[in-house]
Design goal:
- By secondary structure, the protein is of the alpha/beta class.
- The protein has one domain.
- It contains 6 helices and 7 strands; from the N terminus they run αββαβαβαβαββα.
- Strand 6 and strand 7 form a beta hairpin.
């Protein structure tokens, strides 16, 4: 498997340093430590603004962990394939008979290390029900869920609790949503009161 930017000694160090300077310049600080788990599904929430992406990316580079994210396989081609792979993108084929959840369970099971970064809201618009694929991926692959966040009220971002899927979907989701209920997005009016989904 090709190395990503996170594994490059030069670019990894450079981007980590630049990201720390950027976060300090805009008044943000990192909170929490990366758990010692080689494989996990990392939830990125809340997502209410275009500003979430650059701040979240700066957090990833500052922490220097190997983050991977999903991209449609139709975009994973020349001339973007190389840079997308370098940035940690994993192509998904929505035309396959197996769905994205099954593809990602397989991907997690076959790799020794993989941090899969997912946004359960799936949009910057107001939502009242999260997409639950992240939970079923973690459960199916037997890996924990790491709760990452950006809190604009406190200007803090980073790593929260680790939740191990028990199979009791509603109880696990209540625990996750309880944590995020204390986190404020850039546009709080878009957050809404997220309901506990039915498995």
């Amino acid at each position: 498997m090709a190395a990503t930017v996170f594994e490059s000694p030069f670019f990894g160090s450079l981007l980590s340093g630049l990201s720390k300077v950027y976060l300090k310049a805009i008044g943000w600080r990192r909170v929490g430590q990366l758990p010692d788990v080689p494989r996990c599904v990392m939830i990125a929430a809340p997502h209410t603004s275009n500003w979430d992406a650059p701040i979240a990316l700066a957090m990833v580079f500052a922490y220097r962990f190997k983050a991977h994210w999903l991209v449609k396989n139709t975009a994973y081609r020349w001339p973007f394939r190389g840079i997308l792979k370098w940035l940690g993108a994993i192509p998904i084929d929505r035309t396959k008979s197996t769905d994205v959840v099954s593809q990602m369970i397989e991907e997690l099971k076959k790799r020794a290390e993989l941090v899969l970064l997912l946004s359960p809201e799936g949009t910057r618009k107001k939502v009242t029900r999260w997409k639950t694929g992240f939970y079923h991926i973690a459960r199916g692959a037997g890996v924990p869920m790491v709760l990452a966040f950006l809190d604009y009220a406190r200007k803090e971002g980073g790593i929260g609790p680790v939740v191990h899927p028990t199979g009791n979907f509603e109880a696990d989701m209540r625990e996750i949503l309880q944590f995020y209920s204390t986190v404020t997005g850039k546009h709080p009016e878009r957050m809404g009161a997220v309901e506990v989904p039915q498995g």
